[in-house]
Amino acid sequence: MTARTLMLFSHICNPNHMTGAEKLLHFMLRELVPYHRTLLVVPNEGMLAARARSLGVEVIVHPYPLLWEMWNPGPSFVEQLQHFRQPQQLSALMNLIHMHRPDIVGVNTCVNPLPAMAASQLGIPVMWTITEMMQDGPYSPHATQLIASCARWIVGISETALAPFRRDGFAAQTMLLPPSWHPDQLRPDTWPTQRHKMRLTYGIGRQELCAGYVVSDIALHKGFDHFVEMAVRLCHTHPHIQYMIVGNPTEQAYYDHAVAYIHSSGFASRFKMIPFHTSIEAIYPALDLLVVPSMVPEGFGMTAMEGMIFGKPVIAYRSGGLEEMLTNVGKSQWLVPRGDIDSLTALAAELLRDRRACLAMGEEVQRAIQEVYGIETYRRRLKQLLSAIEPSAAALVQHHAHVRAVFSDGMLVKGVHTPAVFLLQGGSKRPLASEGAFHGHGFSWRDVQILDETLLQAWPTGMPIY
């Protein structure tokens, strides 16, 4: 495998936790680092940046806007898109890419179009990872068309995430790369101790069962109120069940209303409210059942996968990738129609009838998730993706060699839309560090040749000239 330079752009970089999309990107970085030079670009400092550095990844902080309407385009989408296409919007990112000259640019999530647009204008192959289920509507084809026009490869974490692109005629560009995990990172040898510690801390008895709800951000679309309603109903008939809620409220009024309902029910002592943990091995071992009542179609359902990795039965609403994943591991019977609290309650009661049966079901699904989504499966798919990318990367290298042969050392060049001025020297382009350096070396603007932005990519970036 030829070593390449990959420049990956994260849509966000949260300070205190990582979203599912950030976790997926971090996971890919860890797999790429041994074989390729890998750069991570983030809009600000945060947990993802820190963890990437610990892997040896070069991290670049460079702010860029997101286009949130990509997920569910409305009437103003085309106008917003035209604004994003303006050279002044793309100039700073194109300049950044010029400096690092990657062979491949990767972006994550559908709402992160600017880096992909900049890279495609520079002629650099783009792989665009779709981690969510884009909404269907009259303006949706504008979003899928944009992604397909910028990306050589549209990488989906599920068939559900890829469905809009296949529907709109871009199936040939799609590739499937579902999430996975590194077993050693979850420290399975500590799980019994973690279970005992967490349950002791929150007063959950050895013979009691615990149903859990785990999210990083508690919000309406994650169905928190549905879990609460299910749990309160079960409290009336199942005194041996406790309930653990893990997450940080992001919609305070919604959260407060649900918590008030818990207190008014008379069963508040059976609800354990815990802030979100970044160390998931401290949470899942304490549970006997995980409930994922997502109210929107999920691109995949990382929480559900995590529950099964830890050997927990998982019940969920039929919400996009959640349905796909549970069906793939042979557990479609653990799905209920979205929003059907009656069926959710009945299914939870059925699975929590007996602790031994619950444990056996968890062990069974743990084996199934390993078989379908384990690390070896991920590595095989990633290798297929990189093999598909390689011909484009090799062709670009060859094209750049032809371009360099046309231009002479000593020329001053800059791009049409980007600000940096370079001196071609020794097979590289050396950036002038400042206007003072430009004039200090006796250069004149009359000597600067304006090149198409794609041509500047032909030279590796050399040492700055001060």
Description:
With 466 residues, the chain is an alpha/beta fold. The chain has three domains: 5-180 and 376-394, Rossmann fold (3-Layer(aba) Sandwich); 183-373, 3-Layer(aba) Sandwich (Rossmann fold), CATH 3.40.50.2000; 408-466. Helices cover 43% and strands 18% of the residues. It is built from 17 helices and 17 strands. Strands 3-2-1-4-5-6-7 form a seven-stranded parallel β-sheet, sandwiched between helices. A six-stranded parallel β-sheet has the order 10-9-8-11-12-13, sandwiched between helices. A four-stranded mixed β-sheet has the order 16-15-14-17. Strand 4, helix 5 (113-121) and strand 5 form a beta-alpha-beta unit. It is elongated and about 85 Å long.
Total helices: the number is 17
Q: Which term fits the overall shape? A: elongated
Number of domains: 3
Name of the CATH class of the largest domain: Alpha Beta
Label the CATH architecture of the largest domain: 3-Layer(aba) Sandwich
- Sheet having the most strands: 7 strands, parallel
Strand numbers in spatial order across the main sheet: 3-2-1-4-5-6-7
Low-confidence stretches: none
Please state the oligomeric state of the protein chains shown.
single chain
Rounded Rg: 25 Å
Our measurement of the CA-to-CA distance between the termini, rounded to an integer number of angstroms, reads 37 Å
Number of strands: 17
InterPro entries: Glyco_trans_1
Protein name: Glycosyl transferase family 1 domain-containing protein
Domain Glycosyl transferase family: 215-365
Family: Belongs to the glycosyltransferase group 1 family. Glycosyltransferase 4 subfamily.
